[in-house]
Every structure is written in structure tokens, then in C-alpha cells.
């Protein structure tokens, strides 16, 4: 089942290597305390997570701006919870979320082990739709930045995954050919279909264990990359 002729591995960051869910929850806990908001964190997250996922899809599809995403998801969440939160507090929460998020640096299970396993055999890279100002900090603070030869963000590329041009930019930066490259990511549309559009091989990380049929090699644990690489 090994993938042949692979020289370059491109990883998504959030939900693939960096434990976004855990780090995000810790961030909200901190900023709610800072703003003296008495909100049940589990109840908030139950409402917020699907709203946030929808906002990120709109952002990927270029239907909303970065600022719309940052404040709109909070506005909608508080409205759904019937909470009256002042616009200034929402603005503070939005800014402080970006400020504090990269200070929490939990990685997903097996991240360090698999990166250490791969680094001697392949060139490793990051392709991410996350905000430029936080993604590099996440990599540095979590101690994994030295594993990667290149990092390509959507803001740097001017387009977001699944747009083929972000993948083409990443390939050009790393002087790689699509046929020698594989993309590993948790978002089927953004990571897998996007990479397919430029002829890259793919490995879908079924982070949430949905086990849905996909047109890609697949894993449910990062260590399972050893099956293919």
C-alpha cells in the first residue's frame, strides 16, 4: 500500500497536526474570564463549533471577509444562545482569541512521532488556510516549525484551499512536482479535492471518525501514515 515516488509531503495544520479543538476551547476559557463573562463553555462550544465551521466554508468560498468570519461567528453564536453581549465585548473577544490561540500548543496524538519518522525520508511542508499572523506562531510555539521546509498560507497565496493556485504556489516554493507530492489533511473538499486538482496524491485524515467513502487513501490516526509512507 506504499505510495511510490513520493519526495514531498504537504500537511494541513489545524485538525491535522495542531489540536485546534483543544487549543480553541482553552482560549475561549481564558478570554471569557478576562471579559468576566459567565458562560458555560461546553454549551458555548456546542453552539459555536457548527457555526464556526459554516463561517469557514463561506470564507473558503470567498463569500465573506476575514473580519466577517472573526466577528460574525461570535455574533451568531451569542444570538443562538439568547445572550446579549455588547459589540465592544465581541470585538475584544475576537481580537483576544487571535492573540491567545497560538499560546496554547497541544498537538494531536502521534504528531511528533510521525514527523520524526518522516523527516529523514521526505521533505515536509505546510499548506494552510489559517490566518498568516497566527499559523507561523503556532508552528514555532508548538515546537514543530523545524520539521518543515516551507509554509504556504492562503493569505500569502491570495487564494484559499481548495483553489488550485495555493497548491501550485506551494509546489513552486518547494520546487516539487505534483507526481512526487502527497497532501495530508482533514478537510475533504479543501485538502483532498484541492490537491487532486493539480495532480497530487492525497491521504485523507478522518479526524472525526466519520468513515465516509472518499476517493483517497485514508487514515484515522497519524501513525497510520506509516502504511503509505
Automatic annotation (TrEMBL):
One Gene Ontology MF term: 5'-nucleotidase activity
Superkingdom of the source species: Bacteria
SUPFAM superfamilies referenced in this protein's UniProt entry, alphabetically: HAD-like (SSF56784)
Stored NCBIfam families: HAD-SF-IA-v1, YjjG_YfnB
Protein name, UniProt field: Noncanonical pyrimidine nucleotidase, YjjG family
Species per Swiss-Prot/TrEMBL record: Antarcticibacterium flavum
Amino acid at each position: 500500500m506504499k505510495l511510490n515516488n513520493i519526495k514531498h509531503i504537504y500537511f494541513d495544520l489545524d485538525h491535522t497536526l495542531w489540536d485546534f479543538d483543544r487549543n480553541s476551547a482553552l482560549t475561549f476559557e481564558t478570554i471569557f474570564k478576562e471579559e468576566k463573562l459567565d458562560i458555560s463553555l461546553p454549551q458555548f462550544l456546542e453552539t459555536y463549533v457548527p457555526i464556526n465551521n459554516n463561517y469557514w466554508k463561506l470564507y473558503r468560498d470567498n463569500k465573506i471577509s476575514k473580519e466577517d468570519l472573526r466577528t460574525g461567528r461570535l455574533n451568531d453564536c451569542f444570538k443562538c444562545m439568547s445572550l446579549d453581549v455588547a459589540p465592544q465585548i465581541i470585538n475584544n473577544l475576537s481580537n483576544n482569541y487571535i492573540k491567545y490561540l497560538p499560546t496554547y500548543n497541544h498537538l494531536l496524538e502521534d504528531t511528533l512521532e510521525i514527523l520524526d519518522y518522516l523527516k529523514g525520508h521526505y521533505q515536509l511542508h505546510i499548506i494552510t488556510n489559517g490566518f498568516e499572523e497566527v499559523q507561523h506562531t503556532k508552528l514555532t510555539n508548538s515546537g514543530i516549525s523545524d520539521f518543515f521546509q516551507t509554509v504556504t498560507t492562503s493569505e500569502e497565496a491570495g487564494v484559499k484551499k481548495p483553489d488550485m493556485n495555493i497548491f501550485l504556489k506551494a509546489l513552486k516554493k518547494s520546487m516539487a512536482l505534483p507526481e512526487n507530492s502527497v497532501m495530508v489533511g482533514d478537510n475533504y473538499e479543501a485538502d483532498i479535492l484541492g490537491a487532486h486538482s493539480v495532480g497530487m496524491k492525497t491521504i485523507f485524515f478522518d479526524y472525526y471518525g466519520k468513515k465516509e467513502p472518499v476517493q483517497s487513501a485514508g487514515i484515522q490516526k497519524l501513525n497510520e501514515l506509516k502504511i503509505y509512507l
